[in-house]
Design brief:
With 312 residues, the chain is α/β, with parallel strands linked by helices. Helices cover 47% and strands 10% of the residues. It has a single domain, classed as Aldolase class I (TIM Barrel, Alpha-Beta Barrel), CATH 3.20.20.70.
């Protein structure tokens, strides 16, 4: 897809924390800079992997502002701003717009289950009208986590009612048929479809999708960058095999603490293991197993990210 705002590889960035569980934007920015230098075209911050819903409203603003203060371009970031509250979602989206972000990723209101498409349309209509334009809205389709899916009919209604406001979707369902249906229905009109699953990167690009926004990109972005640049051929095929293998490795343990373990061992920075409850650090057996799985996938050591690089 041409002219996609976040076309390419976007990491769903881990949120660094201090020992007292406060956000640590400086450490997070260091990781973000490495990602942008190693295959990432953009950064999905404050999403599921970033534990956004474990942070309060003021903390989420602090993290975004801190990243910008530490040298991460606002234009490279797609912050998650969706909450169960209409007014909090609007406030976070307006804040992201004021910082210079080009787009935000918005969960549906997820506390009340089984809302109708009419109810979701009304909710998003309020968000879009209150935000008032100037920033692209990306829908976050993750029914396994939110329990509130986006139907094709709902997406079509939003696109018709608010031309240019809803720019795309991140599909974390793992259901490629659903991603393809979104591409077939809406990509011709510039709607950007991003896979949340690394195993589909090459395929979604070939079929008209915009790229990916994935958790494993925290550590496999080097190979994602190759797939995005090359698309086809032996080098792209080999890189896609690494993406597929690392996705399997990442999901062999609890995803977020497992990725924190990989970054902690790769940098020599134990602080990356700090995580907010209800998530917990991995035990030694799980930590050793997930490290071994990433090694078996052919991804370790991570290019340019080692203890020496971190110390410098």
């Amino acid at each position: 897809m041409k002219d996609a705002l976040f076309g390419g590889v976007n990491a769903a960035v881990l949120t660094a924390m201090t020992p007292d569980l406060s956000p640590d934007p400086a450490r997070m920015a260091g990781h973000a800079k490495w990602l942008l230098a190693n295959g990432c075209n953009g950064l999905g911050v404050l999403g599921t992997t970033g534990e956004a819903n474990s942070f309060g409203l003021h903390e989420r603003k602090q993290i975004l502002e801190g990243l910008i203060e530490n040298g991460i371009p606002a234009s490279a970031m797609m912050p998650g701003t969706g909450t169960a509250s209409l007014t909090d979602t609007v406030e976070l989206t307006l804040h992201a717009k004021a910082q210079g972000c080009r787009g935000v990723l918005v969960l549906p209101p997820f506390y009340y289950k089984n809302p109708s498409d009419d109810g979701l349309f009304a909710w998003f209509s309020e968000v879009i009208q209150r935000v008032g334009g100037g920033i692209a809205i990306y829908l976050y389709h993750f029914p396994q986590q939110s329990a509130v899916p986006f139907s094709l009919d709902l997406i079509g209604r939003l696109l018709k009612a608010f031309p240019g406001a809803v720019k795309g979707v991140k599909d974390s369902s793992g259901d490629y048929a659903n991603m393809k249906a979104m591409i077939d229905a809406f990509a011709k009109d510039g709607f950007e479809v991003y896979s949340g699953s690394d195993e589909y990167v090459q395929r979604i690009l070939a079929e008209g999708g915009a790229g990916c926004i994935t958790a494993a990109s925290n550590a496999n972005s080097h190979w994602g960058g190759i797939v995005y640049a090359k698309r086809t051929g032996a080098e792209a095929d080999a890189a896609q095999q690494v993406l597929t293998a690392t996705r399997k490795a990442a999901t062999s343990a609890p995803l977020i603490p497992g990725l924190r373990e990989i970054i902690a061992r790769s940098t020599g920075d134990d602080g990356w293991r700090t995580i907010r409850p209800p998530h917990l650090k991995l035990g030694k057996a799980q930590a050793d197993a997930v490290w071994a799985a990433w090694q078996a996938a052919g991804a370790l050591p991570l290019p340019g990210l080692g203890v020496k690089a971190a110390a410098e």
